[in-house]
Design a protein that fits this description.
Layout lengths: L4 H21 L5 H25 L5 H25 L3 H26 L10 H19 L8 H31 L4
Helix pairs in contact: 1-2, 1-3, 2-3, 2-5, 3-4, 3-5, 4-6, 5-6
């Protein structure tokens, strides 16, 4: 593995996960701000490592593998912590949808790659919109304090539910694209 800026950013994002968890549980004023800042930093590095890999022409098999893993680990960790902090059906439903979809689509992509059909389930525009909205939702929910008259928590919940709907929609798009391969007789 060659260490380049995109791969270092991805590894940094994974390294931030335990720090993020510890800060989430620390009992000090402003822990929610620092937790949101850490998640925001991870979200920015998610965008930045992909941008730099393309811009600097430093794409690698390691980076292509690790980048989505780092993203899914951070999002799943944040969602689990938020559900634990807000133990209700209202929080659990979108979290289960988002985490479940990530597991299902990762498995689908792996299987499609094995049969040489990976391009059929490449990342779509709706998936990118879903990811952006999901990151905004989690960031707002982690911060949770109103900013002036801006209802951070409420807007975060609305964004989380819209992201969950887009999650289901994008999963349907991926499954429809993969359906011929899934139903092909051997």
């Amino acid at each position: 593995m060659r260490y380049n800026i995109p791969n270092i950013l991805t590894l940094l994002r994974i390294g931030l996960i335990p720090v993020f968890v510890v800060v989430f549980y620390l009992p000090f004023a402003g822990a929610n701000l620092w937790t949101a800042v850490l998640f925001g930093l991870a979200a920015v590095t998610d965008w930045l490592d992909g941008y730099l890999a393309r811009r600097l022409q430093e794409t690698s098999a390691f980076g292509a593998f690790l980048d989505p893993v780092a993203d899914k680990l951070m999002v799943a960790t944040a969602l689990v912590l938020l559900v634990q902090q807000n133990p209700s059906l209202f929080f659990a439903i979108p979290a289960v949808i988002i985490i479940g979809r990530e597991i299902a689509i990762s498995a689908l992509r792996e299987w499609m790659a094995e049969i040489g059909e990976r391009a059929q389930v490449a990342v779509s525009e709706i998936g990118k919109i879903k990811t952006t909205l999901q990151m905004i939702a989690i960031l707002l929910l982690l911060y949770r304090e109103p900013v002036g008259l801006f209802p951070t928590h409420l807007v975060g919940m609305v964004c989380l539910y819209v992201a969950a709907v887009l999650t289901l929609w994008s999963m349907a798009v991926y499954l429809r694209a993969a359906w011929p391969a899934l139903t092909k007789s051997n």
